[in-house]
Amino acid sequence: MPDETKKTRTSAGKNNADKASDRKASAAKGRRLRQRPKGKIGEVWVVIECEGEVAARVSWELLGVARSLAADLGSRPAAVILGIEDQCQELSRQSFEHGATAAYVADHPALVPFITEPHCQVLAALARKHSPEVILLGATTRGRDLASAVATEMETGLTADCTALEIDPESLLLRQTRPAFGGNIMATIITPGHRPQMATVRPGVFPLPETVAGATGEVIVSKPRLAAQQPVRQLEFITNPEEEVALQGANVVVSGGRGMRQLKNFDMLEELARELGGVVGASRGAVDAGWVSQRRQVGQTGQTVRPALYIAVGISGAIQHLAGMQHSDMILAINSDPTAPIFDIADYGIVGDLFEVVPALIAEVKKRKAAAAKGGGAAAKGGSEAAASSEKAAGAETATAGSEKTATATKNGDSETVTTS
Amino acid sequence: MAIHSVICVKQVPDTTQVRIDPDTGSLIRQGIPSVINPFDLHAVEAALKFREEQGEGGSITVISMGPPQAEETLRKVLGFGVDRAILLTDRAFAGADTLATTHALAAAIRKIAAAEPVDLVICGKQSIDGDTGQVGPGLAHRLGMSQVTYICGLVGIDPEAGVIRAWRQLEKGRELLEAKLPAALTITENCNRIRYASLPDLIAAADKPVEVWTVDDIEVDRTKLGLKGSPTRVNKIFAPPVRERGEVLVAAESSAADAAAKVMDRLTEQGLEMGLAG
User: Fold this and answer.
1) What does the alpha-carbon distance between residue B85 and residue B62 come to, in Å, rounded to a whole number?
2) Which of the listed CATH numbers 1.10.760.10, 3.40.50.150, 2.30.42.10, 3.40.50.1220 matches domain A246-420?
3) Which residue in B14, B98, B131, B269 has the most chain A C-beta atoms within 10 A of its own C-beta, making it the best mutation to test that interface?
């Protein structure tokens, strides 16, 4: 169990009955939430998932959400970083830049590489000591795995794969909205009587928060005592090829479905994606057909993406696929079947033979790029374009990680109402 | 090494037609055709494989918590040559969330283990109705077993060392883990191919009983079960928000090139930056 060596907060000992009466009093006076006295309500924690000093993008997305939830609770957003010393320092710095105002840091050699049990012990002990109101984790393999163990250890509620989170202004409960039954229904889940309220959130559902360079916050360090020998150990780790992990954070995703008919037809999607500075994804149909790796699958059982532009080629638009791409800023659908459900959610659609339409799009993009290069200030602009494109080629993920998307949202107002208010 | 595996399976609705009990906020499962959760079949396959690899003396128990009609699902699993099937069914379990489910299942697995020690608890990676993937790891933690989730490849059991080795799929790669037995595993669809049930196994299954256990058969704190033992509540259920249909061009009416040009015009108007994108 972690043994605190530095600062502790004064509010940690507040019991639930006190909190409940505080809430009632607050509601009776009709005060605005953010005017509540500080320290009455537990914090909103985000567990930072990391490999070395690189955090999973979803952890930063969650800090953006945590900031807004904490504001509504009159509390503060905090990052929880479990790892080894230098890594913790660097990640807490980055957490502050992404909106955390506090960082709980626990370092111990048994925490790297990630193994569920020691992480569960440390996180549960921290939560018992500091009584956070909310704990958020990415709905990644490790995030879902760890969250389940911690919720079981703490005998509290856990809601998986949330796509919206908001604080109920009356009860101050976290309203956790998630798809169920393959995306056919949405359910809002609450955890009324247990703390912390825990949720995992799918990567790509929320935008990255704006970063504030040089931002700082309180660091609360603990030195956990953990057994050197754990029942599970990592023997080997194999990183995916770079191209396969670029789906998250890509600015443009060009996905193919069953309509692509065969593997070699994906070459033209690769070309279109390359011309647009994007990456190729796929529907489950294309993955099941064996044309594309499952790592590129977009949808309920694949990844959730939120690019500036999503191009669905030969994808009918099953609800399971829509679950993974409907938060894209713009959607272009290309399909020969005018009744394909994908057209119901696309901003732009082309009904036609994809084997004619895709080459036509490639030609059109090339034409426009050539024209742009020739146009006013061609020399200077051409230079910066080359720089931008080589940066992207070097690592699509890192190139876009901190920057704003190049296209503006057209319909996000509808789909993303709850967290940013 | 004779391995005793316990497989957890769930009966799930076959259709997307789901009804909600407006009073409790729970799902009404009656009247909806049901199937075995597809991911659980990969758990069954994994258990069968272990039994084959480890030779004589191994056994497999399958357990399901659900309504009486979940017996069908257990019968199907018996058809693969599984040795014993237990249906955990009682009104006391109704409306359970994942936490309450792990209380009931863990108590049942402890009872199974008291008679015959359990080396492995094997679950599918998640159910297709709830999609949470929380029961498998929850059971691992509650039972104090090594927790290995989202397995994409099983290397095998090393009986000498008392460990199991498995590949686990992560977002940025995959890792080979070694876990001390007993262990609780969750299995993904990439882990194995499901076999067809053999005729002799199917015939043998017809004579095998499905044991029915109620809350009286397990040692458990009843306040932790069912809806009242569930920390989460369904507050609201609604249809997913839909994006509005946009502008659809028919390529056949003009030409593919015209349609492409028109769409690129629109995308550029909406802020797609062609110059920087390439």
Assistant:
1) 5
2) 3.40.50.1220
3) B131
pLDDT in tens, A355-364: 999 999 999 9
Among chain A residues, the shortest Cα distance to B164 is held by A232
Closest in A189, A236, A351 to B233, CB measured: A189
| Interchain proximity B250–A338, CB inside 8 Å | yes
Are the beta carbons of A179 and B131 closer than 8 angstroms? yes
Equal CATH topology for A39-222 and A246-420: yes
Contact A126, A379 (CB under 8 A): no
Superfamily of chain region A39-222? HUPs (3.40.50.620)
- Asked whether A100 and A126 are in contact (CB, 8 A), the reply is no
Q: Indicate if the alpha-carbon torsion angle A284, A286, A288, A293 is positive or negative.
A: negative
Q: What is the spatial distance between Cα A284 and Cα A149, in angstroms, rounded to a whole number?
A: 30
Please state the three-class secondary structure of chain A as a single string. Answer: CCEECCCCCHHHHCCHHHHHHHHHHHHHHCCCHHHCCCCCCCCEEEECCEECCEECHHHHHHHHHHHHHHHHHCCCEEEEEEECHHHHHHHHHHHHHCCCCEEEEEECHHHCCCCHHHHHHHHHHHHHHHCCCEEEEECCHHHHHHHHHHHHHHCCCEEEEECEEEECCCCCCEEEEEEEHHHCEEEEEECCCCCCEEEEECCCCCCCCCCCCCCCCEEEEEECCCCCCCCEEEEEEEECCHHHHCCCCCCEEEEECHHHCCHHHHHHHHHHHHHCCCEEEECHHHHHCCCCCHHHEECCCCECCCCCEEEEECCCCCHHHHHHHCCCCEEEEEECCCCCCHHHHCCEEEECCHHHHHHHHHHHHHHHHHHHHHCCCHHHHHHHHHHHHHHHHHCHHHHHHCCCCCCCCCCHHHHCCCCCC
pLDDT digits (tens, 9 = 90+) for B67-107: 999 999 999 999 999 999 999 999 999 999 999 999 999 99
Torsion sign across C-alpha atoms A357, A359, A365, A368: negative
β-sheet bridge partners, residue A23: none
Select from A347, A374, A415 the residue whose CB has the most chain B CBs within 10 Å, as the one to mutate to test that interface: A347
Tokens of A151: 């919720």
Contact call for residues A167 and A173 (beta carbons, < 8 A): yes
The confidence band for B150, taking pLDDT boundaries of 50, 70 and 90, is very high
B39 in reach of chain A (CB within 8 A)? no
Tokens of B74: 């257990």
Q: Which residues does chain B have within 8 Å of residue A346's beta carbon, measured at their own beta carbons?
A: 243, 245-246, 248
**Burial class, A371, CB count within 10 angstroms (exposed 0-12 / middle 13-18 / buried 19+):** exposed
Quote the pTM value.
Answer: 0.79
Here the ipTM equals: 0.90
Q: Where are the domains positioned within chain A?
A: 39-222, 246-420
B31 vs A: CB within 8 A = no
Instruction: Look at A189 and B165 and tell me if their CB atoms are within 8 Å.
Output: no
- Average pLDDT in the B233-254 region? 79
| Residues A352, B248: C-beta atoms closer than 8 Å | no
- Point out the residue among A234, A248, A406 whose CB comes nearest to the CB of B273: A406
